[in-house]
Amino acid sequence: MTAGATIRGGAAGDRLNAFVPGGVFTLAGAADGPLAGLSFAAKDIFDIAGYVTGCGNPDWARTHVAADDTQSAVRTLLDAGAVLKGKTITDELAFSLMGENAHYGTPVNAAAPGRVPGGSSCGSAAAVAGGAVDFALGSDTGGSVRIPASHCGLYGIRTTHGRIALDRTMKLAPSFDVLGWFAREPKLMRRVGQVLLGADPRRGRPHALLLAQDAFALADPAVGEALKGGIERLVRAVGPASIVTVAPEGLAAWYDAFRHLQGAEIWRVHGDWVTRTRPGFGPGVAERFRWVATIGRDEVAAADEVRGRARTRLQALLDAGQVLCLPTAPSPAPLKGLPLAETERFRGRTLSLTCIAGLAGLPQVTLPLGQVDGAPVGLSLVGAAGSDAALLELAEAVGA
Predict the structure, then answer these.
(1) What's the sign of the alpha-carbon dihedral 213, 216, 218, 221?
(2) Which residue of 23, 116, 130, 398 pairs with 87 in a disulfide if CB–CB is 3.0 to 4.6 A?
């Protein structure tokens, strides 16, 4: 399979091109349960017994066998009564933020036709935004739930690192990988969270609001303007806001640390397979895999020191019941088919925002509270480690 070839995703009737080839099927959930009557889809990095986990690349699918068991979070949802409707397209090996898969095509962004859905959980976001399912599972390493949620006008969560098991899941960068999900309504986000998360280890909704001025400075001015109404709703729910600088050494330094740490882990996880298989990767993914192979130990050590400072800083900001507010993405979804140089610039700006929660392993919820040029933009809440359910409760209060 060459990188330029395209296989239609899903089956006849998949108007959103959200599902992988052969990935439209139904697995019934329990007869009753807290999610009975609801449908969901799962990103094609999660094992489903009897199906090959294709991870967005035909060479990966070709070199792997069908799973003999199902990922534990998927099983938990089935046991709670939800019905699985299939496996959704992901960017190749989950290593992109755009949602334009060179092999399977671009899932439709129903909220902003003509624009990308965002990646790497692009198919899951498209399936929810287009009404094919009620909610969907994705994964988030560098922003792969948060960014598609922002682009597609959805609620989305990146959970606390390690909070939900990632057994039978393709690894990308294990010290950053987490499970997340999408829904159109905040009440459903919380219902799913009650099944997957249980109770927070710490109780109580956040009671102090922090506005990340350095994060807002990275976003387009129109994004900040569009999110003012959402911030006002947060103030009514939480209380007056304080202005803070999240990264005293600069978000550019945090982003550089993140990309080196993530890249080194990706090569440790996938380098042998890439070297042996020589897969056909699409634009952007191919270049990034060439780069991660060159990252040295000294670069990783320096980046890890930055991560330590970022964790200390965020713990100090958030450990007493505060919640940090920032734009989820720097702009609305880019148009489809942009040149690689433009998409890489967007990637850098975006990861400079998403690395905040990623470096510290913190939960982040994005709310669809703004529009720019008719396209959605999200407002994000970052909380202390373990405050996932509290963030979902706050999102429901604000989004109601």
Answers:
(1) negative
(2) 23
Give pLDDT tens digits for 212-224: 999 999 999 999 9
Burial annotation 139-178 (CB, 10 A radius, 16+ → b, else e): bbbbbbbbbbbbbbbbbbbbbbbebbebebbbbbbeebbb
352 is catalytic: no
Look-up: residue for tokens 């009620």? 134
Mean pLDDT across the stretch 314-340?
Answer: 96
In the residue annotation, 96 being an active-site residue is answered as no
| Catalytic residue of the set 72, 120, 331, 380 | 120
pLDDT digits (tens, 9 = 90+) for 32-84: 999 999 999 999 999 999 999 999 999 999 999 999 999 999 999 999 999 99
Question: Domains of the chain, with CATH numbers?
Answer: 19-399 (3.90.1300.10)
User: Out of 72, 96, 121, 144, which one is annotated catalytic?
Assistant: 144
Helix (H, G, I), strand (E, B) or coil at 291: helix
CA angle 218, 221, 225 (to 5 degrees): 120
Give the CA dihedral 147, 151, 152, 153, nearest 10 degrees.
100
pLDDT of 1 > 50? The answer is: no
Please choose, from the candidates 31, 34, 43, the residue with its C-alpha nearest in 3D space to the C-alpha of residue 90: 43
DSSP 335: B
Token pair of 335 as six digits: 């148009």
- Cβ neighbours, 10 Å, residue 341: 8
Q: What local confidence, expressed as pLDDT, does residue 203 receive?
A: 67
Q: E strands, the chain, where?
A: 19-27, 39-43, 83-88, 135-140, 155-158, 178-183, 208-212, 241-244, 322-327, 364-372, 375-382
Output the pLDDT for position 4.
33
Are 350 and 150 in contact by the 8 Å Cβ rule? The answer is no
Residue 120 annotated in active site? yes
pTM above 0.70, yes or no: yes
